[in-house]
Write a structure and sequence with these properties.
Number of domains: 4
Number of strands: 5
Helix content: 40-55%
Distance between the termini: 35 Å
Number of helices: 22
Largest sheet: 5 strands, mixed
Low-confidence stretches: 1-13, 194-209
Oligomer: single chain
Strand order of the largest sheet: 3-2-1-4-5
Mean pLDDT: 83
Shape: elongated
Order of helices and strands: HHHEEEHEHEHHHHHHHHHHHHHHHHH
Length: about 450
């Protein structure tokens, strides 16, 4: 600070009061005109605001001896200029949720340097098209299979090669495989060995009736076999992964043919006597013959077998290890989409048994593994042959996925041939989610954009 004083009076005029004028010269990097803080303090507060936003930043600044309100920190962040974009040769594009289900945005990434170059409001084609026209030079655009981004790339950068992201391709194929496995869910259950002398005639009728009858016959035999061991309805439902209603229907059906005509479950003859039976069982009486005599004296008209089945639910827990619970659709989908070498021995054995029972799932597994070979070894020239094989297989879900690839064939082929991917984009989308949650979802798009672009 340099001060100069001078007198503005006439020479020899001592009667007048001298007037003084003081002025200051700014020091670069230290002071600025009309500022109440130094540039160093301003930079420190701005860095705190970028890293922690308003409330958390204000708490940290107070602890560091630089008290500042959250509003001041946010003003400092908003006042920062945008970083220069430059020429982006390999551009990554993806959407992110500003408010999930309501508002979305588009994030643009320089895939070579892995930095965010801009955030655009919405996930439509127009904002991205305008940005590409204002920033020419993109040679490769990595994107998902959204039609809006494909249209924007064609209109805004027609010279760029569009690359469909391999992660999204694999994710879409896994969803198709899950639909295929769900359509063949009956193949996941191991076949039940039923004695021929017990169900001889029924087995012959089932074979002539088709796969549905065979499945109903096997399930009916399985439920009644577990009931004979003393298992209750809820135990069987948990063990087999069925609903309680399904187990109850099979249990109340005297023959498997009743399950084919869709008969409704009739009220049990035990219902009027349940209170008395539960009371006697609580007193320690688990002998079905005794209880049957007692309830017959009260007017029960049913058979001894009905009382025995009711009492068996309250006896010791049976051994259900003989009947293995079938794997879920999601489990089998994971086994099919995983590397065979990464599967545990038990899972590999179960998968092989399922594939032997179901030729359709075996064909789907072969298609998945051939697609995985294309994806990992970048052999996109095989895509046309793979699509033809998938369409010829006529598998639910998989065929529709293969047909959908033809609508974006050039980008998918490039994604399976070129080394570029949207990996850096996905990583930055996760970073955007962290920054958004740090501001409790209440920040405007402009503040979120500043922090994403400038935060260290």
């Amino acid at each position: 600070m340099i001060s100069h004083g001078f007198c503005c009076g006439c020479a020899g005029s001592s009667a007048r009061t001298p007037r003084a004028k003081t002025f200051a010269e700014q020091v670069d990097g230290l002071t600025r005109r009309w500022s109440r803080v130094s540039d160093g303090l301003r930079q420190m507060l701005t860095t705190v605001g970028l890293a922690l936003a308003g409330r958390a930043g204000a708490r940290l600044a107070a602890q560091l001896g630089m008290p500042a309100s959250r509003h001041r920190l946010i003003r400092l962040v908003r006042a920062l200029p945008d970083p220069p974009v430059g020429v982006v040769a390999v551009l990554g594009v993806d959407d992110f949720a500003v408010r999930r289900g309501h508002h979305y945005g588009t994030v643009l990434i320089d895939c070579e340097s892995r930095r965010v170059v801009d955030l655009l409001p919405g996930r439509d084609a127009d904002p991205l098209t305008a940005w590409l026209q204002q920033h020419p030079g993109a040679q490769v655009i990595c994107r998902d299979r959204a039609s809006a981004y494909a249209e924007a790339a064609r209109n805004g950068a027609p010279q760029a090669v569009q690359v469909a992201d391999r992660f999204h391709l694999w994710q879409n194929l896994a969803a198709a495989i899950e639909r295929c496995v769900a359509q063949h869910k009956s193949c996941l259950q191991e076949p039940v060995e039923v004695p021929a002398e017990r169900y001889g005639a029924a087995a012959e009728a089932a074979e002539s009736a088709g796969a549905m009858a065979e499945r109903r016959r096997a399930h009916h035999a399985l439920v009644h076999e577990l009931l004979a061991q003393g298992a209750g309805f809820r135990q069987i439902a948990r063990h087999l992964g069925w609903s309680h209603h399904t187990v109850s229907r099979y249990a109340h059906a005297a023959t498997w043919q009743e399950m084919m005509v869709g008969q409704k479950i009739r009220p049990s003859q035990v219902d009027p006597f349940k209170t008395y039976l539960i009371q006697r069982i609580g007193e320690g009486c688990l002998k079905a013959a005794t209880l049957h005599r007692e309830v017959r004296a009260q007017g029960f008209a049913g058979s001894y077998a009905i009382i025995r089945k009711f009492v068996e639910q309250y006896r010791s827990t049976p051994d259900l290890t003989a009947v293995r619970r079938p794997p879920s659709v999601r489990q089998v989908t994971g086994w099919i989409c995983r590397r065979p070498d990464d599967l545990a021995d038990r899972d590999s054995v179960q998968l092989q048994a399922i594939l032997q029972r179901c030729p359709q799932l075996r064909a789907a597994t072969d298609l998945v593994r051939s697609f995985a070979d294309m994806l990992t070894r970048l052999r996109g020239e095989r895509l046309d042959a793979w699509i033809a094989a998938a369409e010829a297989a006529a598998l639910p879900g998989v065929t529709k996925f293969a047909t959908g690839l033809t609508a974006d064939l050039a980008a998918v082929t490039a994604g399976l041939s070129m080394p570029f991917s949207s990996g850096p984009v996905e990583g930055n989308v996760n970073r955007i989610k962290m920054i958004k949650r740090q501001m409790y979802g209440r920040a405007g798009f402009d503040l979120l954009r500043k922090r994403v672009l400038l935060a260290p």
